[in-house]
Write a structure and sequence with these properties.
It contains three helices and five strands; from the N terminus they run H-E-E-E-H-H-E-E. The chain is an alpha+beta fold. The chain has one domain: 2-Layer Sandwich (HIT family, subunit A), CATH 3.30.428.10. The longest helix is centred in the middle third of the chain and has 17 residues, at 64-80. It has a five-stranded antiparallel β-sheet, covered by helices on one side. Strand 1 (23-26) and strand 2 form a beta hairpin. The protein starts with 9 loop residues before the first helix and ends in an 11-residue tail after the last strand. It binds adenosine monophosphate.
Length: 126
């Protein structure tokens, strides 16, 4: 079943500059900005500029340029904020929620990049 994209979602409005954002980085294919309700000292959202609902949507219907461009923007954020353990930094976590089980609130693909403290185990046990 094809995804339907809601043009009125809040990240679409951010991309159209209808509401403000705290930009961390912008490229041809992606925008990275601070989460409005940060869950950690570093909490950046990276979104593609194209109308994709979730990660598998981009991977299945996006062009190679869009997929590479989106992932490259994630790399640029990691490098700009000096998060990579490969560079001797303390690391980060990337999360992308999708659908009901993923508890996705905003129906435009976004990667959460979290860092600045130890983030604990990946998910809470029930
Ligand atoms: P998710 O539950 O994965 O869909 O996460 C949506 C995220 O978007 C949450 O962490 C919100 O705090 C964040 N958010 C919602 N509105 C805004 C906004 N206007 N600017 C920045 N972040 C936002």
């Amino acid at each position: 079943m094809p995804y339907s994209y809601d043009e009125q979602n809040i990240f679409a409005k951010i991309l159209r500059s209808e509401i403000p954002n705290e930009t961390v980085l912008e490229t041809e294919f992606a925008l990275a900005f601070n989460d409005i309700a940060p869950q950690a000292p570093v909490h950046v959202l990276v979104i593609p500029k194209g109308p994709y609902v979730c990660y598998d949507h981009l991977l299945s219907e996006g062009s190679s340029e869009e997929i590479l461009g989106f992932n490259n923007a994630i790399l640029q954020v990691i490098q700009k904020l000096e998060l990579s353990p490969m560079d001797g930094n303390s690391g980060y976590r990337i999360i992308s929620n999708a659908g009901v089980y993923g508890v996705q609130d905003v129906p435009h693909l976004h990667m959460h990049i979290l860092s600045g403290r130890s983030l604990g185990r990946m998910i809470e046990k029930d």
